[in-house]
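Q: What does the assembly look like in three dimensions?
Context provided by user:
Components: six
Sequences:
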Amino acid sequence: MSNSTIENFGQERERLNQIVMKYSGSSIKRFYSLDSQVYGDGALPKKTKELLGLVASLVLRCDDCIKYHVVRCHQEGVTSDELDEALAIGLVVGGSITIPHLRRTLQAWDELKRAD
Amino acid sequence: MSNSTIENFGQERERLNQIVMKYSGSSIKRFYSLDSQVYGDGALPKKTKELLGLVASLVLRCDDCIKYHVVRCHQEGVTSDELDEALAIGLVVGGSITIPHLRRTLQAWDELKRAD
Amino acid sequence: MSNSTIENFGQERERLNQIVMKYSGSSIKRFYSLDSQVYGDGALPKKTKELLGLVASLVLRCDDCIKYHVVRCHQEGVTSDELDEALAIGLVVGGSITIPHLRRTLQAWDELKRAD
Amino acid sequence: MSNSTIENFGQERERLNQIVMKYSGSSIKRFYSLDSQVYGDGALPKKTKELLGLVASLVLRCDDCIKYHVVRCHQEGVTSDELDEALAIGLVVGGSITIPHLRRTLQAWDELKRAD
Amino acid sequence: MSNSTIENFGQERERLNQIVMKYSGSSIKRFYSLDSQVYGDGALPKKTKELLGLVASLVLRCDDCIKYHVVRCHQEGVTSDELDEALAIGLVVGGSITIPHLRRTLQAWDELKRAD
Amino acid sequence: MSNSTIENFGQERERLNQIVMKYSGSSIKRFYSLDSQVYGDGALPKKTKELLGLVASLVLRCDDCIKYHVVRCHQEGVTSDELDEALAIGLVVGGSITIPHLRRTLQAWDELKRAD
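A: Here is the predicted structure of the complete assembly.
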């Protein structure tokens, strides 16, 4: 993703989250808060947590979740070799049904690396 | 969704279902008939059944199914508070992997409410 | 389930939840709290919420979750006809792959009804 | 599975299906009827259909469904080589998460072959 | 799909696979090689294997995988009646949640048949 | 798990894998080999890879896979705090439907820690 693509992805995500907040009561709001909390630094570094989020998103095959965590992995300094090894685990665990998502994961990564 | 968006969604769905009918034998046709039957009035009111269909579609993460049941929930008089509580159950049961679908669910709901 | 089976199921669940609490930090504890909150009374009655939890558990095919919500549905006064109609939606949405779980759902229900 | 294990599996399945029939209205009954219909002879032979049912059950990871279709494959004269090739597709599509089910599939097959 | 649509689909797939190869180490490459191997001729003919891949893709609800196997089924001489019967099994096993994918499967098939 | 439980789990796994090898051709054998390869040391340490395997297994809800990776995490020196944070990510991503598996994960961990 070029910097402007990342920006657009982030802005659209933000716009839709505001609609979620408009209609959501305390339960959905609490879930969102918890969702932020689990990726913070702790006994495991943020980088490892983003890889965990990425592989979980790959095996569950959610493109939006994958794109979010790929950007975050890039921000946390994951290298291409580390990404490859994490994705290989996701591919072997989740099977060839994840391949279309793997393609889009590495397409996003390629755009991020080109913009480095 | 604006009224015209709902109309377009319905028309495209209808067009594709005609292709399904063109190629399907009795089994697929019987499935379609059964699929209509289970959402009819009975011991449970239609409104509850549409909420069941919506939450099942959310946890299984099918955008087309979600969109169909959101429109039907709106037609059956589901309120925004009822929708929020049903979606909160889907979100907690299905996890953050459902959030991109939750966003699109509430975006559709927002358009339906604006067109009220 | 006979009353003693329900009791045993509840006790084992409680025992394992204590092990979860022993090792869990604030995130898992917050999730547990949120998980209780979403089934409380609100715009939708508890009975409807338990049916939503049950159908979500059926289409996601989790026997422990099903058993928990079947007991709760029984406590909230769900009738056999209401249960049948909710399960029919789960079966049609989730397909024949849910049938082994449907069997166990109705086996549990049958035991609950015999103990009424 | 020895002949007596197959018999027990079939009898327990039958016993639970009777409980399903006791509580089910016309929708669940119609689903059961449709579920039988799709595996009958037609443009595709029964053997191919049972292999389709088996691989679908493997990638969706349902042990009871797998066991049922393994027995049916055996009855329809599937060979060990054919089974291996069908399971290899399921394993590659579904990934290593299917391996525990693959083990139980071939354990059942081994028992069926020993009883031949 | 018209011949040009099939060509475009194949070209885009090829382009993305080259990005995958650019970043992938030996594990992902070995997976790709294995993924090709399992659909080759053997005890089961290629046609049956493509039907297995198609039904597995339908119940796991992956549109790209479905499109790939529909084209391959067409190349292997699958008839419309054979396709209908295979899809009926996928629909019954996987439930109504597969219907949007079933629609797209038969839309692709319709385009392939019109171009015959 | 006590040391003898771990041993039994490993022995049963080994026994069933021998049945798999008895019937499997080169594709399944190649998959097994690839499955071992991806968890080896590389750009990411084995410990991180086992955590990735564990969280993928939790969100896909496979008890046997979970048990295997919990034992491997313990062998690689994962701490209870690290495990808690990884599981919290799995729970939030995968939702309450993973809770029964989370319970069994921490029951196994508790037995491993008691045997330390």
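Follow-up: Chain C has a mean pLDDT of 96.
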